[in-house]
């Protein structure tokens, strides 16, 4: 990883953390309050960096800068093809820094380095390129109203957009939100999750290098109830987009309704079922179920963590799933042989362990796993329960951890 590598995590080198301040109007600045917060390396539980703690005053400043940038027209009135060109440059810069960016999400969020480097970061660049291509194809419609009259529609940028990002896919979800916003000609304030603020600040730096004008993309790191709430209730934010828990999604919608009735996009939790019938290829189904439940340590909104298996193949499915779970390697997320790193933080770690305890006390059978592992950090064994009943919490709640619940059906 070159000369910048100075520290170690799980025995591997990680890059120097260069950006820890808020990014407002094209500059890295301290929070108005001067406060900072710690971001933790989940492989060790130790402090990785101190990051500026933005709150309402910083959000106000960032929104004002985003408004000024919108009103000056430098971005919304730039031709779509020119905006697309700048977005393409940003995509190229992301490709060039893939290793460093992947290392940041790995140390900050416990994500697998190889997955982030070879899957997520390229997907972020692809997402930008896709929307860069769309930037000059934002069409309206022409309607013939009568022989004398025609009506037409124009699509216009909505204005200043607020984005609130979770910690499970800090890069992917940053670009799922930021790319279409840039393409449409909007300006924005992004609030990354407090657990994983580092890559967003690096993206802000790259955005400036790519030529995105000052004030178009602002990043305010900080906590949900302060910075996040200030963004969603802001009177001068024209639209808010949020990915995270259902509980906070409700708060965001309420804040939007109570302030300026801004439109809201929410991407929330889930408890996706997999339904596996007797005629399925059992080996393939076992592999897919394992990936579906344990991918990204189960920290994904589409985790297929409740699995219904038809009675004819149930016993075989259970036996093979137990074998496969045992070969699923948990450990240092920089190690290419490892399948699963640590949960993102102590809170999630404890929450997942408490669901496991709940499953046991509710009468489900613990087939494999069920414990924390490793000498330090927030690691949990891939865990499978059988004999799960519909009304158990482990079959109802989004666990957001490596826990699979198996249920037999006729
Ligand atoms: N759909 C998804 O991808 C995600 C789902 N979750 C679910 O939520 C559970 C709890 O995780 P948390 O980190 O507590 O999620 P969360 O919903 O609290 O956090 C997500 C984002 O919302 C912000 N936020 C928190 N409170 C806010 C508020 N009052 N106003 C505006 N923004 C606010 C946070 O700072 C973060 O940026 C997880 O166990 C999981 O079940 C969590 C993260 C992502
Ligand atoms: O598209 C992906 O690779 C991952 C997306 C994850 C989410 O949207 C989520 O967990 O909320």
TrEMBL record:
From what superkingdom does this record's organism come? Eukaryota
Outline the extent of the Aldehyde dehydrogenase domain.
29-410
Q: Which GO terms describe its molecular function?
A: aldehyde dehydrogenase [NAD(P)+] activity
Keyword vocabulary terms for this entry: NAD, Oxidoreductase
Active site: residue positions = 267
Q: How does it assemble?
A: Homotetramer.
Q: Hey, which family's this protein in?
A: Belongs to the aldehyde dehydrogenase family.
Its protein name is Aldehyde dehydrogenase domain-containing protein
């Amino acid at each position: 990883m070159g000369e910048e590598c100075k520290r170690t995590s799980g025995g591997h080198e990680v890059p120097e953390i260069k950006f820890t301040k808020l990014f407002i109007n094209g500059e890295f600045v301290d929070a108005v309050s001067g406060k900072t917060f710690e971001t933790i390396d989940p492989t060790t539980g130790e402090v990785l960096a101190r990051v500026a703690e933005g709150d309402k005053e910083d959000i106000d400043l960032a929104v004002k800068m985003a408004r000024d940038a919108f009103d000056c027209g430098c971005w919304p009135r730039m031709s779509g093809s020119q905006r697309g060109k700048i977005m393409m440059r940003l995509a190229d810069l992301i490709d060039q820094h893939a290793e460093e960016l992947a290392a940041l999400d790995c140390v900050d969020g416990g994500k697998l380095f190889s997955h982030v480097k070879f899957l997520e970061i390229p997907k972020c660049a692809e997402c930008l390129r896709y929307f860069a291509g769309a930037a000059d194809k934002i069409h309206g419609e022409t309607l013939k109203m009568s022989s004398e009259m025609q009506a037409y529609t124009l699509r216009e940028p909505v204005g200043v957009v607020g984005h609130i990002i979770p910690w499970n896919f800090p890069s992917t979800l940053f670009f799922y939100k930021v790319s279409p916003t840039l393409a449409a000609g909007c300006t924005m304030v992004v609030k990354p999750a407090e657990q994983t603020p580092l890559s967003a600040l690096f993206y802000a730096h790259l955005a400036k290098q790519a030529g995105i004008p000052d004030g178009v993309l602002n990043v305010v790191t900080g906590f949900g109830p302060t910075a996040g709430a200030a963004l969603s209730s802001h009177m001068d934010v024209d639209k808010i987009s949020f990915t995270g828990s259902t509980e906070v999604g409700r708060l965001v919608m309420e804040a939007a309704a109570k302030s300026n009735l801004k439109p809201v996009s929410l991407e929330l939790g889930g408890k996706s079922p997999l339904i596996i019938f007797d005629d399925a290829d059992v080996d393939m189904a076992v592999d897919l179920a394992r990936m579906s439940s344990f991918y990204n340590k189960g920290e994904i909104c589409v985790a297929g963590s409740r699995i219904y298996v038809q009675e004819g193949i149930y016993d075989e499915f259970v036996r093979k799933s137990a074998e496969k779970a045992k070969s699923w390697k948990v450990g240092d997320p920089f190690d290419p042989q490892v399948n699963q790193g640590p949960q993102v933080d102590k809170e999630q770690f404890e929450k997942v362990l408490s669901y496991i305890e709940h499953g046991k006390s509710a009468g489900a059978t613990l087939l494999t796993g069920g414990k924390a592992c490793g000498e330090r950090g927030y690691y949990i064994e891939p865990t499978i329960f059988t004999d799960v009943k519909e009304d158990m919490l482990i079959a109802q709640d989004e666990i957001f951890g490596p826990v699979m619940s198996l249920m037999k059906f006729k």
